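Ops channel
N.P.: pipeline sanity check, posting one input/output pair.
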């Protein structure tokens, strides 16, 4: 062949062109690039079909009998002894509750929820054919409901020490993955019910529905769910690629836009930078400390959000960010103005108004990485930045893309799942969760419920969990932290109180200026109206 490198690129040589006139570029294009393009397209199509078949296999089955890939993910992540993937909730009552009365409630719980009456068993030899089934087993109520007596006088510090010992205890994998405790002697005569369940059983919203079924008057109230996007189909991220490969002529502008946004969200997740070294990043231990705050009035927090142009979540997130900033500076770490850390936020994906039932107890949420600007000193500027970051996340494709990615990870081998999650956990310093409950008075075993709060679990090398829980118009902040990172959770809770008070005080001048301006405008309008009236009287007299 007479090869001429000076010949321009021609993808399709004319039919009359003899073989002797083909150039090196023609041979390379037709011999390598085109076959490589078609082989890549066929491989991509095969991957899409394989993933669809895997999704069909893992989706179309009874969730009461089998674990979904997302449920299996949390079961595998529990292999780290430093971070138990267990949701801990505490309900305090005004008055004492007997063990027999609470035992009847627990038996009712096991009767209506199948997942509380069995334990997970792995079926299948290879990972692509492996399933995890809930196998019914005998429930030992002497083990699953224990009574703990807090030393007198039962102060909050003594209760926290008893709770710490319980939180550090792992669940028995050979029994149903839950265990409850009845704490007696709180403040002398009161009781507290501690609810512990593995994250593979259900998510936070699902477990709140379980707690609501334990209380009285549950049929008269519903769990208010955060307004969210419609729960995405498991094929939602695969359909655009399938349409692109099979029907390129039907590829619309909207599909192109969704593909670009999904790829952008996936790229942001995979290229997320690691968090800077602070007192909340380091080697974890198996010892934990807990603390919880006083109650905050929901109308007060809503008023702060309205004055600043945000929501209750924005106000609490800004207060937590300010508390983290003070804790980091208090440990001698320097912060630049541009320094930010990421909070991993569980984002609810259930349909609006959906109350989890026994047949729908699987995990249905996505994980978002919210940037918390701990380097900003001004509380108002910090609130504005938190609100902006939160709106960007909620209005983007991150909830859907992250949900589908977690589904895919749940079908991968355990070693691959742990490797990816350990990489992602480097980009987070804390888990920040906000779960609402019923906003009406409740009773438990005939005793009025005072407070209800929970401690969110962590994964990977994240050692701090901050949870926000609202019940009957009251908000409580719960903190669970690893002692190897930060051993003063009570100080962190105090910082949250002070930051919330600071936001309340700083937001009030804007309201006063607005009200003064409105009163001045009304006064000027009244004076002008009076002048016009006097002018009309004079003209009539003339």
């Amino acid at each position: 062949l007479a090869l001429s490198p000076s010949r321009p690129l021609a993808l399709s040589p004319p039919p009359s062109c003899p073989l002797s006139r083909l150039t090196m570029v023609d041979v390379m294009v037709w011999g390598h690039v085109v076959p490589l393009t078609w082989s890549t397209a066929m491989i991509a199509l095969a991957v899409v079909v394989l993933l669809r078949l895997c999704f069909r296999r893992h989706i179309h089955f009874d969730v009461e009998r089998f674990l979904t890939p997302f449920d299996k993910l949390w079961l595998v992540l529990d292999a780290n002894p430093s971070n138990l993937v267990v949701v801990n909730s505490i309900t305090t009552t005004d008055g004492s509750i007997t063990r027999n009365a609470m035992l009847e409630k627990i038996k009712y719980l096991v009767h209506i929820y199948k997942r509380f009456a069995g334990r997970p068993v792995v079926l299948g030899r290879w990972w692509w054919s492996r399933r995890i089934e809930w196998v019914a087993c005998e429930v030992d109520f002497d083990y699953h409901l224990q009574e703990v007596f807090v030393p007198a006088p039962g102060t909050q510090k003594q209760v926290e020490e008893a709770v710490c010992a319980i939180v550090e205890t792992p669940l028995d994998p050979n029994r149903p993955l839950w265990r409850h405790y009845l704490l007696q002697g709180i403040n002398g005569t009161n009781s507290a019910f501690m609810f512990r369940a593995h994250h593979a059983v259900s998510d936070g919203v699902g477990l709140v529905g379980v707690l609501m079924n334990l209380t009285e008057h549950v049929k008269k109230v519903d769990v208010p769910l955060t307004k969210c996007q419609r729960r995405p189909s498991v094929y939602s991220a695969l359909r655009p690629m399938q349409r692109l490969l099979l029907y390129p002529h039907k590829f619309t502008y909207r599909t192109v836009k969704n593909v670009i946004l999904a790829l952008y969200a996936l790229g942001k997740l995979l290229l997320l930078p690691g968090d800077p070294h602070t007192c909340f990043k380091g080697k974890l231990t198996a010892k934990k400390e807990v603390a919880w705050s006083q109650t905050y009035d929901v109308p007060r927090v809503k008023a702060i959000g309205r004055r600043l142009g945000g929501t209750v979540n924005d106000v609490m997130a800004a207060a937590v960010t300010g508390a983290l900033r003070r804790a980091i500076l208090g440990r001698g770490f320097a912060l630049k103005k541009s320094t930010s850390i990421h909070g991993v936020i569980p984002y609810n994906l259930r349909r609006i108004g959906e109350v989890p039932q026994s047949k729908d107890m699987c995990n249905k949420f996505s994980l978002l990485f919210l940037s918390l600007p701990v380097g900003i000193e001004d509380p108002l500027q910090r609130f504005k930045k938190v609100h902006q970051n939160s709106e960007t996340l909620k209005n983007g494709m991150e909830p859907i893309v992250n949900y589908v990615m977690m589904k895919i990870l749940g079908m991968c081998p355990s070693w691959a799942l742990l490797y990816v999650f350990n990489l992602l956990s480097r980009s987070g310093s804390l888990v920040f969760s906000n779960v609402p409950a019923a906003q009406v008075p409740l009773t438990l075993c005939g005793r009025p419920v005072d407070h209800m709060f929970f401690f969110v679990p962590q994964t990977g090398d994240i050692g701090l969990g901050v949870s926000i829980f609202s019940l009957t118009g009251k908000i409580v902040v719960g903190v669970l932290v690893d002692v190897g990172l930060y051993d003063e959770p009570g100080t962190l809770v105090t910082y949250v109180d002070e930051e919330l008070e600071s936001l309340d005080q700083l937001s009030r001048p804007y309201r006063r200026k607005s009200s003064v301006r409105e009163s001045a405008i009304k006064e000027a309008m009244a004076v002008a109206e009076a002048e016009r009236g006097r002018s009309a009287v004079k003209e009539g007299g003339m």
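N.P.: looks fine end to end. The first helix runs from residue 24 to 59.
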